[in-house]
Specification:
The chain has 15 helices and 20 strands. By secondary structure, the chain is α/β, with parallel strands linked by helices. It has two domains: 278 residues, 3-Layer(aba) Sandwich (Aldehyde Dehydrogenase, Chain A, domain 1); 181 residues, Aldehyde Dehydrogenase, Chain A, domain 2. Strands 14-15-16-13-12-17-18 form a seven-stranded mixed sheet, sandwiched between helices. A six-stranded mixed sheet has the order 9-8-7-10-11-19, sandwiched between helices. A three-stranded antiparallel sheet has the order 5-6-20, with no helix packed on it. Helix 4 packs across helix 5 and helix 10 crosses helix 11. The protein starts with a helix and ends in a 5-residue tail after the last strand.
Length: 493
């Protein structure tokens, strides 16, 4: 289906929204400015959306603040029902939402629909958790008192989300926020705003009241400054680069906001000599090349023990060679384009740096013949810790192979980074799996598995990969305040 036909289909389905949402009303930028949303696979313009800034954001904050007064008092049961209805609508429209993701982000349609299912799972999970926000009773130190702990919503939340998972990164934040009784101002990436707008349209249809969810997009610095400067915004939740996360953390200090940060990674994938080769190849392939390598938990360094290095390199390269690259709507495609030209240039820079320092290209290593922002799935051997490939996030379809001798070497190499989001190990030795898992300085560890994200488990990193956790029962904590109440004896004279 051509882009024009897809756009027409999505518009007919009521899911192609091209305005921001403030106080329940679809809104243009106040100065009329727009930005173009393009299909990265073809370069075609999908839609024009408002280029909003500080004024629109301040109005969205006011709207969320007003709505908080009522939404925070809605019973947990009613909030749960709204979220459950939203989940049902997301699932019933997963085909259209998947098409929208592929149009504006580029990932293969099957993978995009998988993201919708994954993203919707957070809404379902937190619909259930909304009814499980329990307080506590503390044994009193004096007989005439009762000591209680209440959990209450923090208030208005500013949610800033990236382009690589335009639905799931929103639902993972908005689900617990709404379940807790918070209201939200969402700032999606200007490269992928259409999925966010479609999702909040379905939230409106689910009965979530006006002002509870607001969406502004456009001038990122102006929007960010408005969110940071407002005393009505009590929490910032962000997924993106470490550099931007640091700025948001510093900017939040002025009003002492809560901050949740899910930042960059430099994930090691350690393959031990005793690993099952087929399992290691399959797991590493999934961990590295999902979403064309554009995820923060992608295997950024594949660290292979010397006894299995050559066999693994050969088998892995053969598997990578079979990956079909193309437009995400084409049958059989498993790798789409990178998000834009800057992303391709970054990958090229990293690869050239590695080659100049002695690395060898086993497969790929250049732009794809399809043109645009397509890049060949690439495997590079003889990589070391001095190369940029090992030090910084690639965010592209390039798999660097590093060699190690001992278990201690693997742990040292893996931990030699400021990042600490995800790590993977492949071994058939159960004792080793425990030792290495506990020694790795990472928030997530996959053992003999390359795809580990799920709504029921906490997601987040250590060191400079962020603060807080998303998903699971722990994902509610950052949206709730603890209030201690001391009840004296009302009959005491």
């Amino acid at each position: 289906m051509k882009t024009d036909n897809l756009v027409a289909h999505l518009r007919t389905a009521g899911l192609l929204k091209t305005q921001g949402l403030i106080g329940g009303k679809w809104t243009d930028a106040y100065d009329g400015k727009t930005i173009q949303v393009r299909n990265p696979a073809t370069g075609e313009v999908i839609a024009d959306v408002p280029c909003m800034g500080g004024k629109e954001t301040n109005d969205a904050i006011s709207s969320a603040h007003d709505a908080f007064q009522s939404w925070s008092k809605v019973t947990a049961t009613e909030r749960s029902k709204c979220l459950r209805t939203w989940y049902d609508l997301l699932i019933s429209h997963k085909e259209e939402l998947g098409q929208l993701i592929t149009l504006e982000q580029g990932k293969p349609l099957k993978e995009a629909i998988g993201e919708v299912t994954y993203g919707a799972s957070f809404i379902e999970f937190f619909a259930e958790e909304a009814r499980r926000i329990y307080g506590d009773i503390i044994p009193a130190t004096l007989g005439d008192r009762r000591l209680l702990v209440l959990k209450q919503p923090v208030g208005v939340v500013g949610a800033i989300t990236p382009w690589n998972f335009p639905l799931a990164m929103i639902t993972r934040k908005v689900g617990p926020a709404l379940a807790s009784g918070c209201t939200v101002v969402i700032k999606p990436s200007e490269m992928t705003p259409l999925t966010a707008l479609a999702a909040v349209e379905l939230a409106r249809q689910a009965g979530i009241p006006p002002g509870v969810l607001n969406v502004v997009m456009g001038n990122a610095p102006d929007i960010g400054d408005a969110l940071l400067g407002s005393s009505q915004v009590r929490k910032i939740t962000f997924t993106g680069s470490t550099a931007v996360g640091k700025k948001l953390m510093a900017g939040s200090a002025g009003t002492v906001k809560r901050v949740s940060l899910e930042l960059g990674g430099n994930a090691p994938c350690i393959i031990f000599d005793d690993a099952d080769l087929d399992v290691a190849v399959k797991g590493s392939l999934g961990a590295k090349f999902r979403n064309s390598g554009q995820t923060c938990v992608c295997a950024n360094r594949i660290i292979v023990q010397e006894g299995i290095y050559d066999k693994f390199a050969e088998a892995f390269s053969k598997a990578v060679q079979n990956l079909q690259v193309g437009n995400g709507f084409s049958e059989g495609v498993v790798q789409g384009p990178l998000i834009n030209e800057a992303a391709v240039q970054k990958v090229e820079k990293f690869v050239q740096d590695a080659i100049s320092k002695g690395a060898k290209v086993l497969l790929g290593g250049k732009r794809h013949s399809l043109g645009m922002t397509f890049y060949e799935p690439t495997v590079i051997s003889d990589v070391n810790n001095e190369m940029i490939l090992s030090r910084e996030e690639i965010f592209g379809p390039v798999a660097p192979l590093l060699r190690f001798k001992t278990e201690e070497d693997a742990i040292r190499i893996a931990n030699d980074t400021n990042a600490g989001l995800a790590a993977y190990i492949f071994t058939n030795n159960i004792q080793r799996s425990w030792r290495v898992t506990e020694a790795l300085e990472y928030g997530l560890v996959g053992v003999n598995e390359g795809l580990i994200s799920t709504e029921v488990a906490p997601f987040g990193g250590v060191k400079q990969s962020g603060l807080g956790r998303e998903g699971s029962k722990y994902g509610m904590d950052d949206f709730l305040e603890l209030k201690y109440v001391c009840l004296g004896d009302m009959n005491r004279k």
